[in-house]
């Protein structure tokens, strides 16, 4: 059995079809085991014997769309990928806060990795890098002015469209903890 985290795009906890119990129900109906949710923002952990991640992503997304009307994307990472990412400590000495908003933007499995990162996205963003094994961009954002979207986030959207989803570093840590419980 493999432990996976599904990072669902476009989940609004206030949406009547986007509650954790309904999301978990879709995963359970698909035959996955040890299904659990992390926070109320579209993070589902589960076990499966399946190893074809792109096929899992498509299967889950079809079910979410048909059963709950959720059109967003599904991005899956295996427990080992996330554990290795955490162990690499990409944000040494930093604490998540308004001025140091630590983010991880995951690419859909099979998405093309960047040939290069954008040059100096803006003064409010420090791109830590791209981890090819976990297929994730890591950035520190000064989020003290929430009315402005940093250029780096806009670049990600323009380049990868709906084939990405962003989580805070705290959420990634919580997902890994849930996978290990």
UniProtKB/TrEMBL annotation:
Signal peptide: none annotated. InterPro entries: DUF1697. It comes from the Bacteria. It holds the Pfam family DUF1697. This is DUF1697 domain-containing protein. It comes from Georgenia subflava. The lineage of its organism: Bacteria, Bacillati, Actinomycetota, Actinomycetes, Micrococcales.
